[in-house]
Amino acid sequence: MKITLTVNGEEFPLDVEPRRVLADVLREDCRLTGTHLGCEHGVCGACGVLVDGEAVRSCLILAVQCDGSSVRTVEGLAGPDGEPSALQRAFSAEHALQCGFCTPGFLMVATGALEADPTLGDDPDRIEDLVRSNLCRCTGYEPIRRAITRAAQEARQLAP
Amino acid sequence: MKPAAFDYVAPRTVAEAVDALGTGGRRAQVLAGGQSLILEMRLERIRPDLVVDINRIPALDELRVRDGTLRVGALVRHRAFESAHAVPGPLGALFARAVGNIAHPPIRARGTMVGSVAWAHPASEWCAIAVALDADVEMAGPRGARNLAAGDFFQGPLKTAGQPGELITSVRYPLLGDDTGVGFVEHRRTHFCFAQVAAAAALTARGGVISEARIGLVNCADRPLRAHAAEAALTGVEIGPPLDGYRLPENHPFARAGRIAAERDAAPVAEPYADLEYRGHAIAVVVARTLCQAASDQRSRARALEGESR
Question: What is residue A149's three-state secondary structure?
Fold first, then answer.
């Protein structure tokens, strides 16, 4: 089936079988291997990407469902000059990654939530709910929570 | 595993979807949120020949209130119910209390309430609420549209009265009045697990006396249940003052109703980590706690009403 995905602003005209999930198409056809696949059951969250601004599990959505959609992956977070996003800087500052396998998923689910609601930093329960969405088997949840909180607070201060 | 090969169509109207589902002799599946379906297809427990993606049918994402009835379209995502104000009155509060127990934010952004009803998992929060509140399941099929009461719709684990070729277009719930308090309590092993036991309750009281009780049981049988015997034991009971402490006295009406729900209403299925004795105990405790929560909600709503009338 012929579909078009816009991934991180770039258009990808693709011919994909309906059975292929978005994660596989991103990794194999678009050659964007920053999106990781862990459990492929929707549990671990390593495959998190944004589809039309919404954080989803790319292992539980078919690529053909995303025809015409705009997808953002971890590769799309840095600025045009390669400068990491505020959230990526916060992850670095708070040591919110060890092996890094889960990091793309955490970055995308948090980016989606922060962009949808910049007041997220005021609500520790919602940040906890987000952190609980994904698995980190280095068990670095606390630094991840701190990093998201830090990025949320920075975004709040910058807001007019 | 990767899903086995299938054909895919994305119709633009309900009529087109029904046509596609009815294409003779093929195993067809409706894809709404896909958060259970695609997982089952990966596990190859479901191998459809055809997937009918209803996400591009515009009319199905409506959440509408008319004449005291809430109509939830087939594409309304779980997330829509996270705010207690998305739906008017105590029904909105009940949905908001329940929805936080469903997976986590990215799954709730895709998965749908109606999809949960169609899937009919015994541990589904929405299915038990639909049964407790006498919701109506609206279906479109090759022989036209029909409605079925939720209580008749669920027939066993992942089994419903829906026929091949039928599409659930919406589920309708009666709104709850302001004299009704609601509760939802869920018990599970870890945050990622399905409910081991959960209960939904709606208590209506007039002058401090319970006039109607509705209790829905999650994962207390092979299908969602309404706890009729426990409900009957609560009618005419005083809603009473709030209780101190976490443990109810044995003879408290809510503790008694919990035991009745466990002994007479529930028909639990043994699972690893939860044998029948454990499940019976858990059902009694969870139902009693849900009733306490509903009673406390009812009292605060009654106080708010009194405040308004002064």
Answer: helix
